[in-house]
């Protein structure tokens, strides 16, 4: 019999094998200073494009004031216990009611964390006789929620409505045999590519198939739609989303999440969500802080307007200079380049050390081999000067990538890893 840990000693995984070269710099980096458009990385000032603080609320003085007052009043423990037992308050109810109203749903329920809440919501919505159909590029939290499902599941090609329809035909035949129902899961905005889920087209399929739609709108909430209510509002189909999910970790610059839908569905979920039934309630300072942030989202449209001024300047500038930013329809701005993982390391180091630009780097296995994805997240705190500096830096690093500079610089890394 093998030692359970034998596989760990032999294979650190596709990302783990780079740990000695990458940790502390390319992965698990330490940004310092107040969350803003410019922070410090290893003692140097950098323009930060990797913070999901879309509306610039993280260090807004009004937000900081409410957070501090709530911490002083309630501490970091209150309320103690799970919501069903001893962790329920008027402020939790108030936040839920205001969130439901904002996203045009009858009811909402708070979740401690987005990832945890998504996994648990999927688990609660389906039984072994039900069928799940979901986008192949769904976020890891959706994939992990689907893994808990003891019934059948199908993936459809990313944002491919024809593929979805074919899989709905398969799911319908199977559900007729099992006596179950069908849950379709999409994202409002796919956080890596920036594409909006094709919610309008998905909803149209309800005329032909009997299914319920669950949408993860983490990146759409606060950034899309006339009021900021998300991708459903943007596409005119908010009423047709059966269960709506969003997190506080993006536009609201905090911790927590919520689900929203018809009251009867939300009532069912709040009595069956294991991640909430058996976990401590969201602490009061986060609830009070979320109420303030939501109020600012509703009453200060200039925040979203400034965000989109920066988004449009950055994305149009990149396209004008010939960069491939895919088909993003959101604030998420991916820049696709061709190169190896060691080249990507050399490129990003150059970008950070010599040009003062900090953005996230994504490589295989998240994206196909031979591709480098630099992911930029514009926020309301960025300036047009930040955009201009970044565009000039990207011109320079593209030239060095194409002329082989990074390939030469990365040779020692590749040799150390035994790579050719």
Q: Layout of SSEs?
A:
Blueprint: H1 6-10, H2 19-22, E1 31-32, E2 38-41, E3 44-48, H3 61-74, H4 90-102, E4 107-111, H5 114-125, E5 131-135, H6 140-147, E6 153-156, H7 161-178, E7 182-187, H8 199-204, E8 212-216, H9 231-235, E9 243-247, E10 257-261, H10 263-270, H11 274-277, H12 284-299, H13 301-320, E11 333-338, H14 341-355, E12 357-358, E13 360-362, E14 371-376, H15 384-402, H16 405-409, H17 411-416
At a glance:
This protein is an alpha/beta fold.
Characterization of this structure:
By secondary structure, the chain is an alpha/beta fold. It has 2 domains: 10-48 and 301-417, Aspartate Aminotransferase, domain 1 (Alpha-Beta Complex); 61-299, Aspartate Aminotransferase, domain 2 (3-Layer(aba) Sandwich). It has 17 helices and 14 strands. The strands form 3 sheets. A 7-stranded mixed beta sheet has the order 4-10-9-8-7-5-6, sandwiched between helices. Helix 4 (90-102) packs parallel to helix 12 (284-299), helix 5 (114-125) packs parallel to helix 6 (140-147) and helix 13 runs parallel beside helix 15 (384-402). The two termini are 35 Å apart. GO terms for molecular function: glycine C-acetyltransferase activity; ligase activity; pyridoxal phosphate binding. Residues 44-393 form the Aminotransferase class I/classII large domain.
Give short descriptive properties of this protein.
7-stranded mixed sheet, 4-stranded mixed sheet, about 425 residues, Aspartate Aminotransferase, domain 1, 2 domains, pyridoxal phosphate binding, Aspartate Aminotransferase, domain 2, 14 strands, about 40% helix, PyrdxlP-dep_Trfase_major, alpha/beta, ligase activity, 17 helices, single chain, globular
């Amino acid at each position: 019999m093998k030692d359970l840990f034998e596989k760990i000693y032999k294979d650190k995984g596709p990302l783990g094998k780079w740990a000695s070269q990458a940790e502390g710099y390319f992965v698990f980096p330490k940004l310092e200073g107040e969350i803003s458009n410019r922070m410090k990385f290893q003692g140097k000032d950098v323009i930060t494009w990797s913070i999901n603080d879309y509306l610039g609320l993280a260090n807004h003085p009004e937000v900081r004031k409410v957070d501090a007052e709530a911490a002083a009043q309630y501490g970091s423990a209150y309320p103690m216990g799970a919501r069903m037992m001893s962790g329920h308050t008027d402020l939790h109810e108030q936040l839920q009611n205001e969130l439901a109203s904002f996203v045009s749903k009858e009811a909402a329920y708070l979740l401690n964390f987005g990832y945890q809440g998504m996994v648990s919501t999927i688990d609660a919505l389906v039984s072994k006789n039900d069928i799940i159909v979901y986008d192949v590029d769904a976020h890891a939290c959706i994939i992990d929620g689907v893994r808990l499902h003891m019934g059948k599941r199908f993936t459809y090609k990313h944002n491919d409505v024809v593929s979805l329809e074919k899989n709905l035909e398969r799911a319908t035949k199977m559900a007729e045999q099992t006596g179950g129902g069908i849950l379709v899961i999409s994202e409002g905005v796919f956080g890596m590519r920036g594409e909006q889920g094709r919610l309008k087209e998905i909803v149209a399929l309800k005329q032909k198939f009997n299914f319920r739609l669950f949408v993860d709108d983490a990146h759409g909430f606060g950034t899309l739609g006339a009021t900021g209510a998300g991708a459903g509002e943007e596409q005119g189909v908010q009423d047709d989303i059966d269960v709506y999910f969003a997190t506080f970790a993006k536009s609201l610059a905090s911790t927590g999440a919520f689900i929203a839908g018809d009251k009867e569905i939300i009532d069912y979920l709040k009595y069956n969500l294991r991640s909430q039934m058996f976990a401590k309630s969201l602490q009061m300072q986060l609830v009070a802080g979320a109420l303030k942030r939501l109020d600012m989202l509703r009453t200060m449209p200039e925040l979203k307007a400034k965000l989109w001024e920066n988004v449009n300047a950055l994305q149009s500038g990149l396209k004008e200079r010939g960069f491939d930013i895919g088909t993003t329809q959101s604030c998420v701005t991916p820049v696709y380049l061709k190169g190896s993982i060691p080249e990507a390391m050399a490129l990003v180091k150059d970008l950070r050390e010599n040009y003062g630009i900090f953005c996230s780097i994504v490589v295989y296995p998240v994206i196909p081999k031979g591709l480098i994805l630099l992911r930029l997240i514009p926020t309301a705190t960025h300036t047009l000067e930040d955009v201009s500096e970044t565009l000039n830096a990207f011109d320079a690093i593209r030239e060095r990538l194409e002329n082989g500079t990074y390939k030469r610089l990365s040779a020692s890394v590749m040799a150390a890893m035994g790579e050719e």
